[in-house]
């Protein structure tokens, strides 16, 4: 082995030296150096034959032998999808696909399944997208016979344990809570809703409420209805003998019930051509993300190849006109791109997108529209056509760069109802596309007079640039909270309630003290960690907080509805829901309530005993929410404050209880140096303060 390695090195050095000599000679003679380099011919990729057959119960199998490595890959495609889920349960398909794998089966519970696969360096994955379901297994050849029954069990007999369902729902809700963090994700999502309609299955959002509507029974029924033999196609590629593989597949899959074939019903897209200008304000950014376009087409359109050539001329990466002109020549874009989408099951979307400085938003929009119109008004050049064809044809080799890709492509075509030679036909149609064809499809399929424009950016920085396109429609992207209806009206003794609240206010802030700013310093304990903290509240709505966390200093700043968080020298904006939650928590603090004692509608509700102590109980209304205050009968301090608050990560309301003790008074303001926070009955954090300062 060592002699072989040395020999390889010597051969490489000799080859390099020879090529270097040729380059030097070419430079001396004025020849182009690359013309003298000799490269070995690439090995031809032999496209394998895919053997197909269908079992009596309706499963179609696709087999490709590949003996290069002792591996076997199994991929199943199931006729199902999120399109079959009603709007009120949006998210059901995705959660079903997740828990099929994460929850294991009755025979192989989740932990046992994970250990089994890990010990054999194998993997099994499942998922359900908008248009199909998938399941895959990658396994060593020697383990295939033992693990293929496990794969079938996961595919057909998921256990759907409650705890895994709740975990998947919580993860989905956490994703919902972060969906407005990224400007590009916002723009892409809302543009699709603009084109298809927000209440359609193509434009709907998964919301907290729709996730809460999903039950275990829903998952079981959705799986049982669609994961049947009649809806399955299974591809197998790897190191096996076809005849032996057929016997094994018949043994494991042949006994599955045929079931009923699912009809994938894709609602008709009701799209009316129109021009519009739409805006989403994101005040924490200094650039604009723009998408503009209209409805696209279908994959079975005879002009598919011509449209893709046109699309490549317009937005084909570095050689496309959008990038060459809008970014390189005009310097208007950080990124610019586009696509004429042509889907198999429902119309795609034509769009162009650009990210630009706030000050050049309109200029970038105009530049893109100009290039769309130019495609209609001017023939492209012969060089553009040839370069575009070369790009498409040269990249085509990567469509079949592995046996797995060949198998996947053929299964995809069969699933979408396309002929098995669809790709080859596309390549031939690209070759035959002419300059006249490109201009013709641009005139037929592009509609620059009816573009829907969406801008996500900073309203203050963009100014009135968008008004030139018409009346600006501002889109609200706030995330609906589940069950956010009217708060229950609490009735009690209003007169005594006001009397007791005034006594609380005087106990917390002495009548001769005008409180503007409060600074507290101490320690917070959370998740087993103790961290130093200093917080300054500038009433009514500004907070500055510094936390010495294990990973370094974290600074939080909030004022007037928005804020930032700085950690590791990196500053980022607070997500809107986090900022709103922070503001809500501030408003419900005992200091804010004391400062607004005349505006919170206090109601005396009698007494309540907690831990052997009897308290006077008040209810006040803050931000349209009920807040219970338990007043110490001797000191009038608010020892306990209790309220419900929406938790974005959990996607539901939680009961928050703050317990205050160890009160200290400085400059007329009393503050509890020990504070314990309890959420849904469980202690979630504790703060121990050492000092507080007033108006400093």
UniProtKB/TrEMBL annotation:
Q: Identify the residues that the record assigns to the Peptidase M16 N-terminal domain, covering every copy.
A: 78-186
The Peptidase M16 C-terminal domain covers which part of the protein? 213-391
Where does the source fall among the domains of life? Bacteria
Q: Does the keyword Phosphoprotein apply?
A: no
Question: What Pfam family is a match for this entry?
Answer: Peptidase_M16_C
Arranged from A to Z, the UniProt key words for this protein are: Signal
Q: Known SUPFAM superfamilies for this protein? A: LuxS/MPP-like metallohydrolase
Any coiled-coil ranges, and where?
none
Q: Which residues form the signal peptide?
A: 1-26
Keyword Cell inner membrane attributed: no
Q: What is this protein called?
A: Insulinase family protein
